Every structure is written in structure tokens, then in C-alpha cells.
Amino acid sequence: MDPQENPQQQMRSPPRLPQQSPPQSQAQSQSQSHSLSHAQLQSPSPSPSPSNPGSDLYSFLLFLICLGSLLVAMSSSGTNITNMISILHQVPEGHVGVYWRGGALLKEITDPGFHLKMPVITHFEPIQVTLQTDKVKDIPCGTKGGVMISFEKVEVVNRLRKDYVYETLLNYGVTYDKTWIYDKIHHEINQFCSGHTLQQVYIDMFDQIDDKMKDALQGDCTRYAPGVEILSVRVTKPTIPPSIKRNFEEMEEERTKVAFLLLIC
Predict the structure, then answer these.
(1) Rounded to an integer, what distance in angstroms lies between the CA atom of residue 48 and that of residue 218?
(2) Which of 50, 92, 238, 265 has its CA 20 to 30 A from that of 248?
């Protein structure tokens, strides 16, 4: 072989390129993406944890218990529910507004008109500071001789001074008149009856009972509740047993006859 021919053959043979993997077709890539998306759809998604019905029932029962306790507390204390939840309130003429917060009496006192307060937390009451008449009815008592009589009605005209409202309510509450008028009248009437006979209570000293009751009430109020003024007391004629009443009427007729005969003579 001619050594010169080898380089020509070498020049005519093309160089060999490195083998490459055939490119994937577009259809194959799309099929792979569809298979992935299908697999993602089929994979189970995390479901939300179901709510516990027992917890919801417990919360509802707790709310009912709290609401019931609040209503019972307000009703047992005599509190008006509308007064508790209202924000705007009115103090009428002749009264002052007094407030409690959490059961504690506040020193704030408002004049007649419209005012604002915190609902539920603050409680409001109008307190009369003008003349008022308290009527104490059906007061039984026993005389010195042991006869049971009854006063149908005793009227007490009184007034609470404005500058003593806070002190009086702090010591005796809103029903201060029950302590110093209603209960006191019962006590004073029984004291008077037990120290006098029926003749004195029904006839001889009946015209003095009004002043004696007024002085007794005002004396204790001045000492223990200086804001309460007793202006007058009116006591009705007591009710006595029918048999004794008939005797008094007969005695009165005899006196009238004797007086008439003395005038004629």
C-alpha cells in the first residue's frame, strides 16, 4: 500500500460526533404534565378538623347560666332592668339623681334634667327632696287598761334635705322613711297608748296626739338622721270595740242632757 494514499483516505472520512440522546417530543412532555396534574388532583387534600359539638353546647349553657344569674340578682334586689341597661335617664323636678356603681353609693348627685350613665355598671334612683306625705295605715295598740284599739291612718308630712341626701342614703338606704317614719310611728303610737287609759286616748288627750307624735319623730330624726324634717302629723280617730263605743256615746248623751238642764235652770 502506498503510504501517500492514507492521508487522502483519512481526509475523506467524516469525523464522528459524540452520541446524544434524542430530544423528547412535545407530546411526551404534555402527557407527563397531564399525568402530574392528574396525580395531584387524585391526592387527598387535608380536610378541616370537624367542630366539636360538645364545646359549642358547653359555651351556650355557660351563657345561659350567666344570664340567668344576672336576672336573678337584679330581680332579688328589686332593680329595674330598664334602668340597668339604659344610658340616658331623666331626673324629674323635685328630685335629685343618686347613683350606685357595683353596689357602692357614689357621692355624685345630679339635678333635674337629662343625664348619662354607664349601662349595667351604674344604677340610678331619683330621690324626692320636696314635701311628701307618708301614710301609715292600720296601727294596732293596747291601752293602759288592756283594751285593744286601732288607728286607721296616720299621715306624716316630711322632707329630705338636699344637702343630707348622700349621708342619709349611705346610712339608711333608699327606704330611709321606713325606718324613721313608718316603723317609728308604730312604736310611738304603742308607747302612747300603753301609758294612757282608753278615756284619755279616745277623748281627753286625743287633741294632743298630733303634736306628741311630731315631737317624738323629729327628736329621733334630729339625733340620728338630721336630713329628715318632720313638718306635721295627722292622726285619725282610733277604732274601738263596738260595745265600748256605745258606752261612750251614751255617756256623751248624758253629759249633753245635764249641760242642757243646767242652762235651762
Answers:
(1) 77
(2) 265
Residue 39 confidence (pLDDT): 46
CA distance 155 to 232: 8
Measured CA distances, 145 to 142, 151, 242 (Å): 8, 17, 17
Cβ(100)–Cβ(113) below 8 Å: no
Measured CA to CA in angstroms, residue 137 lies from 8, 156, 186, 206, 236 at distances of 149, 11, 10, 18, 10
Spatial contact of 134 and 156, defined as CB atoms under 8 Å apart: yes
Please classify residue 210 by burial: count the beta carbons closer than 10 Å to its beta carbon, then call 0-12 exposed, 13-18 middle and 19+ buried. middle
Task: Quote the strand ranges of the chain, DSSP E.
Answer: 88-91, 95-101, 104-110, 113-116, 122-128, 132-142, 148-160, 228-235, 238-239
Which cell numbers in the block locate residue 61? 349553657
At 50 the pLDDT is 53
Least confident window among 59-63, 67-71, 164-168 = 67-71
Contact 123, 79 (CB under 8 A): yes
Do the Cβ atoms of 99 and 117 come closer than 8 Å? yes
CB burial string 36-49: b at 16+ within 10 A, e below: eeeeeeeeeeeeee
The DSSP call for residue 13 is S
| Stretch 74-80: mean pLDDT | 52
Residues 97-143 pLDDT 10s = 999 998 899 999 999 999 988 888 899 999 999 999 999 999 999 99
